[in-house]
Amino acid sequence: MVYQQLPFDDLKVKSTNKERVAYFYDSDVSNYSYGASHPMKPARIRMAHSLVMNYGLYKKMEIYRAKPATKQEMCQFHSDEYIDFLSRVTPDNLEMFQKESVKFNVGDDCPVFDGLYEYCSISGGGSMEGAARLNRGKCDVAINYAGGLHHAKKSEASGFCYLNDIVLGIIELLRYHPRVLYIDIDVHHGDGVEEAFYTTDRVMTCSFHKYGEFFPGTGELRDTGVGKGKYYSVNVPLRDGIDDTTYKSVFEPVIGKIMEWYQPSAVVLQCGGDSLSGDRLGCFNLSMRGHANCVNYVKSFGIPMLVVGGGGYTMRNVARTWAFETGLLNNVILDQELPYNDYYEYYGPDYELDVRPSNMFNVNTPEYLDKILTGIFSNLENTKHAPSVQINNVPKDLEDRGDVEEDTADAKDTRGGSQYARDQLIEKDNEY
């Protein structure tokens, strides 16, 4: 098949001004393995990082190694019992935890591997530290590709995800921001994040995903939230083979309308790479530039933004795309020709920075998409007036957490507190 020139070949950087970007990376994250035959490969984060460094993007942004999340911090969302289990279970003592393994859904999809707890703490620490820096105005964009594990529930692992770093990051943002928007472009529904904020209007979740006989089986148009959160969960159920142009025709109108009516003061964008063409587990047909257009569009609003990773099971394509998107977040369009890097042989035979669409049939008809958009806009009408949250003062942190820099003067803004400790605080009715 001849690669057709798409409108995205002239992708322009949409910049409000010079963004300050904080990039979080921990070299240890790629040392962990779900198992030889498991599709989830943490090494893709190191592959993406190698491209980022060899393209010279380190000159454009601040690079940090975040402090791993503590048990107390993880328990701001997850149950104490579940986190305790993750910290104690190993491949060697798994037999002692058979009952708990069933209860917490740890097994085939979410195996126990060496260093599981440390892997979770690195993922969580990056997203929480990124959110903390955004809160303090230390950066405009924070990136944590080790995060984005959107399926994890309060007391349950799911879909290769054990710790929901996104929920922990959003909880941190809510301490300073009255409204946070979560956007998910992974091919799978962001069910764990939606479930966590299903009853509040302080977080709007918007997920674009394959729906119908596909994991996790949730995320239909009618799922819109309950109670105060009614209409604050937005789901865009899509079908196989969606391409760049079609995806853009849905993504930009929906996000544009949400920005206009909900007026979030912070955004979290999950950039799952399994919506790319040719993914081992995905069924969409997005090119690298079509995927990156979503990042570019959200960035154009100039709102403090936390960017996290997610799925993606064709490693070379995920690495290419995340590197390209890191360039866009730094107002740079990277060269097509790949620089030499630690994984250069993975990118043969063309050694180019590109993920091309295939000739896959697009099942998303204009009629179907019009029906979806009509339904979404109808629901969004109910959110026209952005909910206001009265915050007199930012609550004091329960436990000091050192900043990623040596400067202790700026290390006061920290996170923490177990569920028990937080329950002791008196909260107003309208506070999340």
TrEMBL record:
Binding site for substrate: D109, G159, Y313
Entries under Gene3D superfamilies matching the protein: Histone deacetylase domain (3.40.800.20)
GO function terms (MF aspect): histone deacetylase activity, hydrolytic mechanism; metal ion binding
Binding site for a divalent metal cation: D186, H188, D274
Active site per the UniProt annotation: H151
Residues covered by region (Disordered): 388-432
Compartments, as annotated in UniProt: Nucleus
Record's GO cellular component terms: Rpd3L complex; Rpd3L-Expanded complex; Rpd3S complex
Main location: nucleus
Alphabetically ordered keywords of this record: Chromatin regulator, Hydrolase, Metal-binding, Nucleus, Repressor, Transcription, Transcription regulation
Residue ranges of every copy of the Histone deacetylase domain listed in the record: 38-325
EC class (word): hydrolase
Chemical reaction(s) catalysed: N(6)-acetyl-L-lysyl-[histone] + H2O = L-lysyl-[histone] + acetate
GO biological processes: heterochromatin formation; positive regulation of macromolecule biosynthetic process; regulation of DNA-templated transcription
EC number(s) reported in the record: 3.5.1.98
Similarity section: Belongs to the histone deacetylase family. HD Type 1 subfamily.
This protein's name: Histone deacetylase
Species in which this protein is naturally found: Lachancea quebecensis
